[in-house]
Design brief:
Order of helices and strands: HHHHH
Shape: elongated
Helix content: 55-70%
Strand content: under 5%
C-alpha cells in the first residue's frame, strides 16, 4: 500500500525500479503530481485529506503505472544483458527507430506525458487545478 492513516508514500519510498534512464525520478515526480491532484479533489469535494477511498484510488493508480514502467525497464535491461538476443535487440531497436508513432509513445510514457499521466505532469498549471 502506498498510504496509511497519516502517511502517503511517493517515489523510492513507495517503489524501487532499476535506475535505467532515471525513470525512478520520473515516477516519483508523477507520484507527487498525482498526490497533489488527489488532495485537491478531496478538498474540492469537502472530504478529509486522508479520505480512505481516494487514497486507495491513488495507490491503485500509481501502483499500476509503476508496475508497467518497472516491467518495461526490466525487459529492456534483460534484452541488453543477454548476448544471444543481440540480433533480436538490433531488429527491435531498428523497427522502433523507424516508427514515429512507436518512438513518440515510448518517449511520452517515459517522460510522464501520456494521456494517463497526472495533469500536473502534462503541464496543467496548479492554479487551474485549484479552481
Amino acid at each position: 500500500r502506498y498510504w496509511g492513516q497519516s502517511s502517503v508514500l511517493v517515489g523510492d519510498a513507495a517503489h524501487v525500479v532499476h535506475p535505467l534512464a532515471g525513470q525512478g525520478v520520473n515516477l516519483g515526480l508523477q507520484d507527487a503530481a498525482a498526490l497533489v491532484e488527489t488532495l485537491l479533489e478531496n478538498r474540492r469535494q469537502s472530504r478529509k485529506l486522508n479520505d480512505e477511498r481516494s487514497l486507495r484510488a491513488y495507490s491503485r493508480y500509481r501502483r499500476s503505472e509503476t508496475e508497467l514502467m518497472a516491467r518495461g525497464i526490466h525487459g529492456i535491461r534483460g534484452l541488453f544483458s543477454l548476448q544471444p538476443l543481440a540480433v533480436l535487440r538490433r531488429l527491435g531497436i531498428g523497427l522502433l527507430a523507424r516508427s514515429w508513432h512507436g518512438k513518440d509513445a515510448l518517449i511520452r510514457r517515459a517522460a510522464g506525458l501520456s494521456a494517463n499521466a497526472p495533469a500536473l505532469a502534462r503541464g496543467v498549471e496548479l492554479g487551474q487545478l485549484m479552481r
